[in-house]
Amino acid sequence: MDGRLGRPLLYSYGIADLFFVMLTSVEVYFFAAFLTDHAGFSLAVFGRILTITSLADIVCALAGGVILQRVTLRFGGKYRSWFLIGPLLFLPLSVLQFTKIGTDFTASAFIIFGFVTSHLLWNVVSAANGSMVGRLSTLPDERTILSSSRAQGMAAAGLLFSFTGMPLIVYFGRLTDPISGFTLATAVFGAATILGYLYIYRLTAGRDPYDEAAAGARGAGQPLREIVGLVFKNPPLLHLIIAQTFNITSLFMVSALAVYYFTYVRSDPSFVSMFILVTSVGRFAGTLVASWIGVRIGKRKCYWMFLLLAGLLYSLARLTGGTSWGFTLMISLAMMVYSIAVSMLTAIFSDTVIYGEWKTGKNIRAFTMALMNVPIKVGVFLRSVILSVGLAAIGFVANTAPTPFVVSGISSMITLIPAAACILAAAIFYFGYRLDDRQVLRMQEEITSR
After folding, report:
1. Mean per-residue pLDDT for 48-62?
2. Looking at the structure, do residues 156 and 271 belong to the same domain, yes or no?
3. Which domain holds residue 139?
4. How many domains does the chain have?
5. Average model confidence (pLDDT) for the chain?
């Protein structure tokens, strides 16, 4: 697009992400507990629901990219159209996840249907949001700011949800019943998500014309085999996906083990709420300075340097976590620098789109941006495997007094595993992703001149 972007667009582009992440947080924090403690499903049915939805979620991440790449809606742009249509479609489907209609078999079928279809649409809309970053500007500094704005919205969502999520569920539960409490709270967050995407739909008006290569001319109509083949011709993208998989796994490990740490190591389970709040503040603080740092040192340096630093801080948490507050503050500091790194992610993925088109002459922006969701799905799987194997290896037994070996094991798992994951991610990215801002600008100029 001609001219530089206005400040409202640059610095408030993350509004949609803020409300969207609040909606998804209902599932992240409460879905499992809803199934067992409120909907009353047996462990067998519970396991079946989680297994089916987890496997389907990985498929949805890829299918969403294919849909966005090959389907063009006519509501104001290839990507913007999904801001208008997607949230309206996934709201009732998201709500369906938190219902119990009929028998256990019928109810579980409705829940699985709601989960799979809503997640498919989530992935399409999320990928469209990421694709618009590269659509809005070709300037590295503006892409960095837009990427950081998205990260700020996501981090702010964690803060707001910690204050509003459970209180809203409890409030509606008292007005109706416990199950409907989840149903109505999900509906409220879904309605807010519609408004958030409507805001950026209006904010980006006129900036997603159908004549751009990413929107059709050089990228649409390709068979799936060709699209996948183009991904494997893009080494920076492949290394980025692998690095981000280890990166996101580190965050999932800390989140999953926090309850175990404060219950069995610190004997202070009530401190978990304070841990979530303080670490959310740390993550949000990191996103506030990320764009300033990224613009000055470049996205590539910002990503690997701050990931490496996060790994070192996680390691220090193992040595300095003598108290609940000491541990929490060190982890919060690690998450702050971690957030500086991941704030570059949308812009870095967008740069791989340019590299791919420069190298092959074909643009698969939509599918590439959808691949941002793949590390999340794989990270959830890795977290589950590491968690189950690790707890078994240290001899953990729930609801019993921990042995010194269990205490030491949990302390190591929540610090050293994330540390190793961050350091490994930084190394993979440093040696495998060699694009800097100047190279990307030159490639963009060559593409334009063709």
Report:
1. 86
2. no
3. 1-210
4. 2
5. 89
| Of 36, 70, 181, 60, nearest in space to 114 by CA | 60
Q: At 239, which amino acid appears?
A: H
Q: N- to C-terminal Cα distance for the chain?
A: 17
Please tell me whether residues 166 and 276 are part of one structural domain: no
Alpha-helical (H) ranges within 232-362 are 235-260, 272-297, 299-320, 324-342, 345-360
The reply to whether 204 and 247 lie within a common domain is no
Q: Please give the pLDDT value at position 356.
A: 93
The residue among 210, 231, 260 that closes a domain is: 210
Residue 66: inside a domain: yes
Q: Encoding tokens for residue 51?
A: 């297994």
Co-location of 284 and 384 in the same domain? yes
Q: Per residue in 187-204, pLDDT tens? A: 999 999 999 999 999 999
Say whether both 199 and 255 belong to one domain: no
pLDDT digits (tens, 9 = 90+) for 146-191: 999 999 999 899 889 888 888 899 899 999 998 999 999 999 999 9
- The domain that holds 147 is classified in CATH as 1.20.1250.20
Burial class (CB in 10 A: 0-12, 13-18, 19+), 427: middle
40 is a domain residue? yes
Rounded-to-integer distance, Cα 233 and Cα 224, Å: 14
pTM of structure? 0.81
255 and 333 in a common domain: yes
Residue of 108, 96, 129, 107 lying closest to 26 (CA atoms): 96
Q: Stretch 210-215: mean pLDDT, rounded?
A: 48
Q: Is 409 within the bounds of a domain? A: yes
Contact by Cβ (8 Å): 290, 150: no
Instruction: Kindly provide the b/e burial profile for residues 298-334, where b requires at least 16 CB atoms within 10 angstroms of the residue's own CB.
Output: bbbbbbbbbbbbbbebbbbbbeebeebeebbbbbbbb
In angstroms, the CA 122 to CA 185 distance is 18
Average the pLDDT over 116-120 and give the result.
Answer: 94
Whether residue 300 sits in one domain with residue 260: yes
Q: At residue 2, does pLDDT exceed 70?
A: no
* Cα-to-chain-centroid distance, residue 83: 18
Tell me if 131 is assigned to some domain. Answer: yes
Residue 293 reports pLDDT greater than 50: yes
